[in-house]
Design a protein that fits this description.
Elements (H helix, E strand, L loop, with lengths): L1 H8 L6 E2 L2 E3 L10 H10 L11 E6 H13 L7 E2 L4 E4 H17 L9 H11 L7 H4 L1
Helix pairs in contact: 2-4, 2-5, 4-5
Length: 138
């Protein structure tokens, strides 16, 4: 309907098809499995994997960059597939987040980050830590 409207009224429309979005401040149990796992691990809970599938992911900052490009290019494609930036198994994500929990939150050490995805995943994890009450809890 929106595409028909844009065609009939000479309007502009960018319809986006987006993979799983992750990044800081997502809502646990709602936005993504990554938000849920980060929240659970940061709070000392034990995450559970229901289905260990491959996830096609895009970091929220990368998604914003793609949207800005479309705006600047005056996009009117009606259906634009935004490319994902990582494809990772749920179990691999959980293993990395558990590593961040142990190395960074428990031991106070900066974890070894091997690539851009791990860097962005680590920054996502850090935002779920309750630093204001850290000393009271540990």
């Amino acid at each position: 309907m929106l595409s028909d409207w844009a065609n009939n009224k000479e309007g502009r429309l960018s319809g986006l098809i987006i993979s799983n979005v992750y990044g800081p401040f997502g809502h646990p149990y709602y936005n993504s499995v990554i938000a849920t796992f980060c929240h659970q691990l940061a709070c000392g809970e034990t995450p559970k994997i229901d289905v260990d599938g491959d996830l096609k992911l895009i970091y929220v900052g990368d998604l914003v960059d793609e949207i800005i490009k479309l705006i600047r290019n005056n996009d009117n494609s009606h259906e634009q597939i935004i490319p994902y930036t990582a494809e990772v198994k749920v179990s691999e994500i959980l293993a990395l987040l558990q590593y961040y929990r142990i190395s960074y939150q428990d031991k106070g050490e900066i974890p070894v980050l091997h690539n851009d995805f791990e860097h962005k995943l680590f920054n996502t994890y850090r935002c779920y830590m309750d630093v204001a009450n850290y000393n009271d809890r540990y």
